[in-house]
Amino acid sequence: MTNSFSVAVAVARKDLTAEWRTRELVPALAQFVVLALVIANFGFQIDAHNAPSIAPGVLWFALVFAGLVAFGRAFAAEREQASLEAMLMTPASPVAIFAGKALAAALLLVVCEAVLLPALALFFGTPISAPIVAAVLLATIGMAALGCLFAAMVARMRSRELLLPLLTLPLWIPFIVAGGHAVQVAMGASGSYDQALALLLDFDILFVVLTSLAARFVLDE
Amino acid sequence: MNKYEKAALAAVGLMVLAAGAIFFYAPTDALQHEPQRIFYLHVSSAIAAYGCFAVVLIGGVIYLRNESLAADRFAHAGALVGVIFTTVTLVMGMLWAKPIWGNFWAWDARLTSTLVLWIIYAGYLLVRRLAEPGRQAARFAAVVGIFGFIDVPVVHFSVTWWRTQHPGPIVVRDALPPEMLATFLFTMACTIVLAAVMIAIRYRIETLSDGQVAEVAARASTVTPRGPEPTR
Fold this sequence. Notes:
Chain A contains 9 helices and no strands. Chain A has helices at residues 2-22, 25-44, 51-74, 76-80, 83-89, 94-124, 130-154, 160-186, 193-219. Chain B has 6 helices and no strands.
C-alpha cells in the first residue's frame, strides 16, 4: 500500500517536474481559458445584469474543454517516447502509475482553474468564494480520474484527438450537472448548495473507485 | 432458407402482428387520442435497448475476466442493436412529445439519460472501429461498455434531482385498461424477440468475418513465411 502510494507520488512528481522544465501546457491552457472568456463575452452580449446567470455556464464550458486538452496531453509525452511501456515493465502496479498520472493532470488543471476563476471574476464581475472553489475542485477529482482513463485508452488508438471528447464528455455530465448547479447557487440562484456538493462527492467516490478497477485493463493493453 | 433467415422472417411477422394489435385492437386514449399509440413501441424498444446494453455489460465483464471471444462478439452485437433501438425510442418519443408537450424535446431526466445512452454506445462502436482489431478493441470496448452502463443511471439520478416532466411508469402502477396492457405486453414480447434475433444474426456475422480474417492471415503466412528477425 505504502509502496503503491510512493509510486503514484513519484510518477506525479516526474510529470510535474517535466511540465515545470518545459512550461508548455499550463501557459497554453491559461491562455486558452482567457480566450474562451473573451469569446463568451462577445457571444452572449454580457452586461452586469445577466452576468451571474451566464457566468456559471461559461465557467464549465471553459473548464471542460481545458480539461480535455490537459488530459489528452497527459499521455502524449509517454506515447512519443514509448516510456509508458518501460514504466509498466517495472514491478510497480499499473493502478499506482495511473493514479500518479491522474494526480499530476488534476494538479495542472487546478493551476489552470487558478487562472480561470480570477479571470471570470475580473471580466464577468462574479464573486470568487469558497463555495465556488470547493465545487470546482471536487468536480476536478472525478473528471481527472475519468479523463485520464480515457486519455490512456485513446493514446494507443488512431484518431485519438477525435475520440477523447466523445468518450469523456458523456461521462462528465453528472459532474457538470451537480457542479453547474452548485456554482449557480453560489452565484445567487435558488437551490440547495449542500445537496449539490454532496452529490459531487458521491460521484467522485464512485468514479475514482471504478477507474482504479478499470485502469489495469486499459494500461496493460 | 437457413435458420437465421427463418428467425428473421418470424420476427418481422411478429412485429406486423404487434402493429395490428396497436392499431386495431387497442382502444383510443381519451385524452391523448391517436398519438398515445406511439407508447407501445416507444416503451418496448426502450426496454429492448436496455436489454441489449445489459448484454454489452455482461459480455464486457466476462471478456475482461477470461478473454472469451464469444462474450466479446455478443457485446459488440448487443451494442449495435441497442443503438438502433435507442434511436427508435428517441425518435418515437419526440414524435409523441410534439403533439402532447408542444415540443420535440425537453431536458428531462429520462430524455437526457437516453440521449447520453445513445452517445455513449455510439462512442463504443467508434472505439471498436478505431482500436486495433482483436484484444485491444475488445478490452477498450468492454471498459467503455461497463462505464456507459453505470453512467446512465447516474445521469438519470442527477437530473431527476434537478427537474423532471416525463410521464411516470404507468404500466407498473396498474393504470392501463386490460386491452392496452395486453397490446403493450404483446408488443414488448415481439420487440424483445426482434432484438434477440438481430443480436443472433449480428453474432453470426462477427463469427464469420473473424473466421475470414483468420483465413486470410493464415494464407498470407503460408505465402511469405516469417524468417528470423534481422539482427542489428
